[in-house]
Amino acid sequence: MSPTPLQQLARSERPTPDDVWKLLREGNQRFVDGVSDHPNQDAARRASLAGGQHPVAVIFGCSDSRLAAEIIFDVGLGDVFVIRTAGQVIDDAVLGSLEYSVDVLDIPLIVVLGHDSCGAVTAAVESYASGQMPPGFIRSLVERITPSVIAARRSGVKDVDGTVAEHVGQTCDRIVESSRALSAAVEQGRTAVIGVTYSLAGGSGKAVHAIGEVTDPDLPR
């Protein structure tokens, strides 16, 4: 059986962020069109990965059950390194996982993945409007998303989906600002960061922010 495009990319000398993002976009389009290939999901692929992994992207996304990265980008086992928290909230474990993916696994692209109607962002928007914080550890999620809510309000954005887009962009920036290792990787051209918002109904991902050497038709030149 001939290798899939992702397998070919992983075997190349070192794929560029643009190479990786192009294949992820193509996979997402297949998913939207209902013609997913479901690559690298068989026993042979499972066995081939027992000795190590060589993913081509790290996807840091929301934990929402409707946002399964491998499905919406039509990839399989060993193709992407996935990190998920509610509202794609950053903490030390997330930063450590991202640093591992870039410095140890040598992954050239970080995708920050948010989605419309996000429950965590909705809670932060409602908390900001009411002045009331939620109980328990949900408060911690809201506190970490609130700076994005404030930034959105300063830009005249009050709706949840607009705030999600702002939060995705803010998260991209915070990742690079918070980690010297990730900042250095971007500055050296070893990796890039792209922020994407996902439509739950339509299934499509749209780029809304980028840092480093990665391009997308949706982003301003």
From TrEMBL:
Keyword Lyase: yes
Reactions that this protein is recorded to catalyse: hydrogencarbonate + H(+) = CO2 + H2O
Protein's name according to its UniProt entry: carbonic anhydrase
Alphabetized Gene3D superfamilies for the sequence: Carbonic anhydrase
Annotated source species: Micrococcus terreus
EC annotation from Swiss-Prot or TrEMBL: 4.2.1.1
Residue spans crossing the bilayer: none
A molecular function (GO) term: zinc ion binding
Function: Catalyzes the reversible hydration of carbon dioxide to form bicarbonate.
UniProt xrefs under SUPFAM superfamilies: beta-carbonic anhydrase, cab
Keyword field contains Protein biosynthesis: no
Binding site for Zn(2+): C62, D64, H115, C118
PROSITE patterns in alphabetical order: PROK_CO2_ANHYDRASE_1 (PS00704)
Cofactor note: Binds 1 zinc ion per subunit.
Sorted UniProt keywords: Lyase, Metal-binding, Zinc
Annotated Pfam families: Pro_CA
